[in-house]
């Protein structure tokens, strides 16, 4: 009761302060510096959907440590939809008492004790996509509640938002989070309908660029009124968006399907490599408690992760494509480059790439790979082994639905 009374008084004070304007601008700058590299973590939805509870979340946090994922850079344990119980008579949201009997504050304390961070899910509408209470009309109240629990990351969805304009709705939750006083990463899950890459950098830290991912390498799942997209379909939807991304504000092509059983090992590698090339958030969506060695090795590959987490924060670009074979480049810090040779076709592709004949230039970020003036050492990001230098043509076989990812260093 005391906590609810305190939060209610704080809400009233925050609402008055927000109306004054200047305080909001000052507080907005307080949290600059969050997500300077793409967030890394885990989310419950892709594997477990609504089947979430306290036991699963604790075991997942434990598995993030024992699997080596925390050491590889994964930080966030994000509980997606269906954690919610009801609102009380004062309007405060509570977790489902059967699924989370210890409460969210105790769960956050447990996750923090492991050196990890807690993420939660809500929705800009009256209800979440799973039919739980949304935050519409309760934004400041919910933000204060999350802050009191120790939440570090909020995924904010877009179901049941009739009559709302996306930019305004997300600005409201941003203001509420700022006023709540606890730094939280805001994940804008608006599905790309209202071009969130245009207004998102001033509102949140990442924004979805498409509808939901589907656990398939190259296909579409049609639900009638909406569609889910395979890995390659989502990759194609990133065209023209790279100029909007950078440190603290990222294009989000949705969570990873690696380790969920429907993709081959090569497809998992291609999925992970291309999300790294896109400077996308790396949010695993599998059961961390039951990973085979192959999945662990893909998700914890430090060289591929270093491409994703590079401090320049430049999103990679498609350099060429022909007959199901694509070449992607990504400028990195200290004059390095990453390159991925992606085979989307069903046949092995023979690669013969003459570095000196290619003119690789990033016009948006003014970067150029000049292999005539500089000789680069080549490292295979997956194996860590040397692949020679750019003095000689690169010859390799790239298997079907797989990728060859290299790092070039002077």
Strand order of the largest sheet: 11-8-7-6-5-2-1-12
Mean pLDDT: 93
Low-confidence stretches: 9-30
How many strands, what sense, and barrel or not for the largest sheet?
8 strands, parallel
Task: Please count the beta strands (DSSP E, at least 2 residues each).
Answer: 22
Beta-strand percent range: 15-25%
Q: Based on helices, strands and strand pairing, what is the structural class?
A: alpha/beta
Helix content: 25-40%
The gyration radius over C-alpha positions equals 22 Å
Instruction: Calculate the terminal CA-CA distance, rounded to whole Å.
Output: 62 Å
Summarize the structure.
With 410 residues, the chain is of the alpha/beta class.
What can you see in these coordinates?
With 410 residues, this protein is α/β, with parallel strands linked by helices. The protein is 30% helix and 24% strand. It has 13 helices and 22 strands. It has helices at residues 2-20, 22-30, 45-48, 54-66, 69-72, 104-113, 139-149, 166-180, 196-199, 231-236, 265-277, 293-299, 302-308, and strands at residues 40-43, 76-78, 84-87, 93-95, 117-123, 153-157, 185-188, 206-208, 220-222, 227-229, 250-252, 282-284, 317-322, 325-331, 337-343, 349-353, 360-362, 367-369, 377-380, 386-389, 394-398, 402-409. An 8-stranded parallel sheet has the order 11-8-7-6-5-2-1-12. It has a 6-stranded antiparallel sheet with strand order 13-14-15-22-19-20, with helices on one face. A hairpin with a 4-residue loop joins β17 (360-362) and β18 (367-369). The longest helix has 19 residues, at 2-20. The chain is globular and about 70 Å long. The termini are far apart. Residues 9-30 have low confidence and may be disordered.
